Amino acid sequence: RQNQGLIVKNLKAYHKTCVYKNNNLGQYLAGLFEGDGHIWIQGQIGKKTHNPRFCITFSLKNESLAKKLLGIIGSGFIRYKPKDNACVLVVSPVVGLKKIVNLLNGELKTPKIHQLHNLIDWLNKNHSCVLTKLPLNKDSLENSSWLSGFVDADGSFSVQHTKTETGAAKRKIACRLRIEQRILDPKTNESYFEILNQICLFLNCNLLTRTQKSTGNTYYTLAASSKVSLNIMTQYFNKHPLFSSKFLDYKDWELVAKLIINNKHLMDEGINTVELVRNRMNTKRVYFNWDHLKGLG
Fold first, then answer.
1. H or E element: which one contains 177?
2. In the predicted model, is pLDDT for residue 276 greater than 90?
3. pLDDT digits 0-9 by tens, 173-232
4. Could you read off the pLDDT of 143-181 as tens digits, one per residue?
């Protein structure tokens, strides 16, 4: 119990000291948008015309991140959806839309680029802008914050601890990053294969497909968990941090990942750490520290 108390104390101190500076806001926001965002543009012009709306949806527990981004962009509002346990960052003033374009243009990596290009066309036509539509970004993932934003939107960190049926002494402990994304973009019918395959090549894992029984929809899915993958991920996410509550899950997850990398996860102290981490991650998290948002901007 004394050791467990010490580990819990160290975990809290660990979170408080992890404040990073992200100099790649546009890359991060691009990944976040391409995971959980969309741009609405009015179709037929009626009696009342409306500005386009740039939207990113967050789980309600990530309201602090939504507010932080709203402050950085400088215009817009947050719409709350209590029934969905969600909130939406909405930007519709022209000054805010121009800032969005300046941040995202040239950073997008998925078929959602067409939504941004349509917004640029709207600004050029209706507000005398001369904005150039830049193509898909083909830069490596390793040196960009794009993947951090995409994982904040569509990724999840988990720690597994199982015992085999042949004996309690035989344990399996694993750390996994899982990402799932639709196969086709619903607006353009273009495939997400290229970017998901690029992520798999970077993280050293395989790209699979999964069909959701309730809807019949098919998704690309990847799960990175090997030692090689763990090394790549810890180096990447410590250089390009997450900013949602998944940052806290990642920092707990990283403790176990390092135990696995150093072959210490099956020692008594390692097993204690694994159990403590499992009982405080994801839906079990009750302690939230948002100090890491100081590094966003």
1. strand 171-182
2. no
3. 899 999 999 999 998 999 999 999 999 999 999 999 999 889 888 999 999 999 999 999
4. 999 999 999 999 999 998 887 655 556 778 899 999 999
Q: What is the strand order of the sheet 171-182 is part of?
A: 155-163, 171-182, 218-224, 207-211
How far apart are alpha carbons 75 and 69 in whole angstroms?
A: 10
How far is Cα 67 from Cα 73, in angstroms, rounded to an integer? 10
Q: SS3 sequence, 125-173?
A: HHCCCCCCCCCCCCCCCCCCCHHHHHHHHHEEEEEEEEECCCCCCCEEE
Which pLDDT tens digit goes with each residue over 243-261?
Answer: 999 999 999 999 999 999 9
Q: How many residues does the chain have?
A: 297
Contact 296, 68 (CB under 8 A): yes
User: Could you give the domains of the chain?
Assistant: 2-21+140-295 (3.10.28.10)
